Amino acid sequence: APYSKPSVHLEPSKDLKPGDVAEVTCHASRGYPEASVLWQDSRGANLTANVTTWQVANEEGLFEVRSVLRVLVEPSVTYSCLVLNAALHQHGHASVTITGQPLAFPAVALWVTVALAVCVVALLGVLAFVCHQKIRESCREDEERAGPEERDEEGEEPKTALQLLENTESREGREQEID
């Protein structure tokens, strides 16, 4: 008796990513004698070594065949099941193409990354503020410790070399105007 046209089922059937394990099940029924089941991928490679196959006869003596192929998901690969009835020179064929999604950054990981980045930026801002406050406090303490002995004759704070040069030039300019 010829087998029914094979049907193929993929489990899990959605949200597959490259590297996930999936099971492709091929099922045909009501045939006699026992069938041979062959599996191939879209490149023509024989995958029968990765298969578990069961054949059970019903009360009429006709066989139901179920074959399960375990695969690591690769995008756009087609898996084909071929059910052969050698006595009748009959074969049935069914296939499924796994359109696995490309590797993607999971949404949860994206939110965790954004939250961590915001925390790091906030921490850096607080650290910069604290450092700025410490520097200002340190400068005030230095000014208080400096006292009058470090002030110049006009009672001003010590100046940088550039400020001294500018003061000297402005004094010379004023003296020339007076002459």
The count of β-strands is 7
Determine the CATH superfamily of the largest domain: Immunoglobulins
Mean pLDDT, all residues: 82
Q: What share of the residues does DSSP label as strand, in percent?
A: 25-35%
What structural class results from the helix and strand content? Answer: alpha+beta
Q: Categorize the overall geometry.
A: rod-shaped
For the biggest sheet, the summary is: 4 strands, antiparallel
InterPro entries: BTN3A2-like_Ig-C, Ig-like_dom, Ig-like_dom_sf, Ig-like_fold, Ig_C1-set, IgSF_BTN/MOG
GO molecular function, one term: signaling receptor binding
Keywords: Immunoglobulin domain, Membrane, Transmembrane, Transmembrane helix
Domain Ig-like: 6-97
Walk me through the structure.
- The chain is an alpha+beta fold.
- Helix content is 32%, strand content 32%.
- It has two domains: 92 residues, Immunoglobulins (Immunoglobulin-like), CATH 2.60.40.10; 42 residues.
- A hairpin with a 4-residue loop joins strand 6 and strand 7.
- It starts with 6 loop residues before the first strand and ends with a helix.
- One of its GO terms (molecular function) is signaling receptor binding.
- It is found in: Membrane.
